[in-house]
Design goal:
14 strands, alpha/beta, 470 residues
Length: 470
Amino acid sequence: MRSNQSFMMIRLFKLPAICLLFQFFCTVLVAQEKNKNNLPIGVFDSGTGGLTVLEAMLTLDAFNNITGKPGADGKPDFDKEYFQYLADQANMPYGNYAAENKTKLLKEHVVKNMDFLLKQQYDITRTNAAAGPKQSVKMLVLACNTATAFALDEVKQFVQDNGTKAPVVGVINAGVKAALAYQSSHEKGAIGVFATAGTVASDGYPKTIRALAASMQMPEPVIVSQGGFGLADAIDRDYSFYVDTASAYRKDYKGPSVNNIKYKIDTALLNVYKFNKENNKLLCEYDDKGKCLDIQLNDPENYVRYHLVSLIEKMRSQGITTPMNTLILGCTHYPFMRDTIRNVLNELYNMKFNGQYAYRSVLAKHVELIDPAVETAKEAYIEMRKLALGNNLSKQSNKFFITVPNKSLKEVQLQPDGWFTYEYKYGRNEGANKPFVLFTPFDDKNISEATYQRLKAALPAVYRAVQLAK
């Protein structure tokens, strides 16, 4: 107890003064602090969507690097920092765990991933030998809305129990702040939350929006949410939701369809969805007369079309008369589809039936798309400065990790593409204490060429960093 008190007392003094009194101890203390500062920042997501947050961190210039005060200085704010990124691809999509009543399993996954990032060395039985040396991380950025919504408290408790004192930053608060900032400076409109089904089920965004609006003495906002079931999965090319080589109706498809009771494609709205039918992006089950009996989505664009129409139709059916002018992209994968989302909203705003605009009563001409990534990057920088965690030694190489199925586990069930089957993924139970996954660096096998090309086009700073790390 006395040694802890002494340490706390030492922290109250400026280092030059204390060094005059305790020269040896001060030398050790400074070395420890420098070593901690020289650790990487950990960024985590269920897949590659969180790379949008990392792109924001790599390119952010919102602060003065010397003073830490707001204001660009022409230099990236994290210029001296380096990163460890982890995508839990084997266990994604996280958004479906709530629907399958497996939120405890989801929390367990998140905590296990935090354990990997915080460890100073690998468990050699769980990690690809090509990974090279590893360090612990000095900060955790949960670049995953579903993980933040369901497991933020568990992560903070784990960090506290772990004794690392690493700060934890999540994406939800950052996105809400940006949405309310837009609302406060524009005409009042409804706020849409477009997120994974799991994030929507958590009610994390509406609760945070209402609480923060109340603290800002703003009128209670009108909020409407849409769970983008299958969209993040399709973006990350999950076999159950999208197969780019498919040319016919699939029995193992899990996404929205005419026969899906919960996520039903309404055939009366086909002229509203305006699905893209080119290159097998829409698949049908035909009868012997050529009539389409069921419809399957087979492209991220069509998932966007289905869910945005569902969101707007929900507003009409609920009698909401405040047009939506703000849409939070509450999944880090969704900014990849920003242009498509913008185009579909414009289509819906201008859509007419019988000479009348169909959706202008619920949709504003301009809808501000809120990407929480930049705000999360700002929050991480502020936290780093507040805790004096800036790197003061040499900058090292970034590392990118992904989880893959542990095929040595006899019970593992895999799809034709080598990833867990849907039934196995969501059929497991928490507390099994089994090594379901292995941690391995990004490579050309576990990350598709199409994904790399998407990163190259949308996230150039991340793409360069990934290529350098390979």
